[in-house]
Each structure stands twice: as structure tokens, then as C-alpha cells.
Design goal:
The protein is mainly alpha-helical. The protein has one domain. Helix content is 63%, strand content 4%. The strands form two sheets. A two-stranded antiparallel ribbon has the order 1-2. Helix 4 packs across helix 5. The longest helix has 33 residues.
Length: 275
């Protein structure tokens, strides 16, 4: 565990540099693939910028939603806490990020950019799809270093022993299953598969190439979502942190995974674009 990067007097939470390295890598992948999708570099960076704004807002909002049941479960206690420590309470409500919120926010940001510029949103979604698991892999490595999103108690091979003075006191009490690293590895596999499909199925095309018509845009995003929905639903059973929130017997992320199944199926089997 190494939650902070110290540069002189600056103490930076290491998760954020890992996140931005992952985002930059994903953006460079999209830039490198732009000719295969007939997208110019201005639109790659424009859509990426809009997506980043949406990612941040979405990730923070979804984190807030995980806190809502706790707030209303003890609203009197929450008001007391708010009066006593306003800034601390805001950090409690918005201090974390939820991946699904970030993903949906990023897609929404790209949709806004595409709509604003008269472009095909699903084409942007496909060129961004390989970058999603790559960026997420870096993010999960950051989670591992930070000590968040940790695994359940586990005493088998490759168990992780966090220090007793970890940020979360429960974290270092028992050995943990390295669920963050497992998810990072599975994301790398997904990235490799999507890149293979891009080079296998997507010949280079210009923006004006009429042979683009008929391509089922959104298919790569559908493959990614289908893969990740299954992976995330299963891995949630190996999580040990309580902060992720529960809805009945399922975690918040498991419920979101189920809700995303229709979208993934539609993207996989939708009819080809006709214009």
C-alpha cells in the first residue's frame, strides 16, 4: 500500500496520478485508431475533453447516490454532522468516485460533443471502447495502492496484507483478497481482445468514405459492456469494503450491471447504420 506521492511538501493521493495516466493512455489509443474510424484529431480531443468533464461529474454523483440511504437512514445524525463539520460532510458525500458513474458520464459527455458537432455518437463510443478497460486497469491499480475498493477477508494464496495503520482501519485488520489487481488484469485482457477486433474487423476509412455506411457502430462498446457487466457482477462478491453501498442483497454496482444488460444487448444486435 502506498496511498500518497510526496513531492517536497506536496502530498498527492496516488490514485489520481494513476487515473490520469490511464486516461491519457486511453486517449492516445483513440488518437492512434482515428483513421480506422474516420475521425479527425480535433474531434478526438474535443470528445475526450467533454467526456472527461462528464466522467468527473458522473463518478461524483454516483458516489453521492451510494450515500443517500445512509443519510436518510439517520437524517437527524446527518444534520448534526453537517452543522458541526460542513466541509467534512461534503467530503463524506462527494469524496469518492464510482466507476459506473464515470463511464456513463463519459459516454454522455461524448454524446453531447457528437450532437453539438453533427457527428455519429456510436462511432465515438466504438473508438473509445478499447480505452475504457485500459484506463480502468490503471485506476484499479491506483485503488490497490490507495487501499480502497479492497477485497474480502482471505487467507489463501496471494492474500494481501495491508498495514495496520491503513486509511481504513478495517482494511489492515485481516488479510484481503486482491480483487483490485484481479479486476485490473481482467481489464487488460478485455483491452487486448478489443484491440484485436479493431485491427481484425476495421479497415482504415476516411471521414468521407461511403463504405463506412452499413458498419454496425456501437458493437465494440456492446462487447465491452457485456464483458464488464459479467466481470463486475462476479467480482462484487469478492469485495470487502462497505462503502460501495448495498441495495437489498446486491451491491450498488451489481444492480447497475443488471440495468445495463438491455443496453449491451441492443448494442450487440442492433441493425447496421444506414447513413
Amino acid at each position: 500500500m502506498h496511498p500518497y506521492l510526496e513531492i517536497g511538501n506536496l502530498k498527492l493521493q496516488l490514485y489520481y496520478p494513476m487515473f490520469f495516466i490511464g486516461f491519457a493512455a486511453a486517449l492516445l489509443i483513440s488518437y492512434a485508431l482515428r483513421e480506422k474510424f474516420g475521425i479527425n484529431k480535433k474531434d478526438i480531443f474535443g470528445a475526450g475533453f467533454f467526456g472527461l468533464i462528464g466522467l468527473y461529474i458522473g463518478a461524483k454523483l454516483f458516489y453521492f447516490f451510494t450515500k443517500v440511504p445512509q443519510v436518510f437512514g439517520d437524517f437527524t445524525g446527518f444534520k448534526t454532522r453537517l452543522d458541526a463539520d460542513f466541509s467534512g460532510t461534503l467530503d463524506y458525500l462527494f469524496g469518492g468516485m464510482v466507476f459506473y458513474g464515470g463511464l456513463l458520464g463519459f459516454l454522455f459527455g461524448m454524446w453531447v460533443y457528437a450532437r453539438k458537432n453533427g457527428l455519429t455518437f456510436l462511432k465515438f463510443a466504438d473508438i473509445a471502447a478499447p480505452g475504457f478497460p485500459l484506463a480502468h486497469a490503471f485506476g484499479r491499480a491506483g485503488c490497490f495502492l490507495n487501499g480502497c475498493c479492497y477485497g474480502m477477508e482471505y487467507h489463501g494464496p496471494l492474500a494481501v496484507h495491508y498495514p495496520a495503520d491503513a486509511l481504513d482501519k478495517e482494511l489492515g485488520a485481516v488479510p484481503r483478497f486482491p480483487v483490485q489487481l484481479l479486476e485490473a488484469g481482467l481489464n487488460i485482457i478485455c483491452f487486448a481482445v478489443l484491440m484485436y477486433l479493431v485491427f481484425k474487423r476495421y479497415p482504415e476509412q476516411s471521414r468521407s468514405d461511403s463504405s463506412q455506411i452499413g458498419r454496425p457502430y456501437g458493437r465494440l462498446l456492446g462487447i465491452y459492456l457485456s464483458y464488464y457487466i459479467i466481470v463486475r457482477f462476479i467480482l462484487e462478491f469478492f469485495r470487502g469494503d462497505k462503502i460501495r453501498g448495498m441495495i437489498g442483497i446486491l451491491s450498488t454496482s451489481q444492480v447497475i450491471s443488471l440495468l445495463l444488460i438491455p443496453a449491451a444487448v441492443w448494442l450487440l444486435f442492433r441493425k447496421k447504420d444506414t447513413a
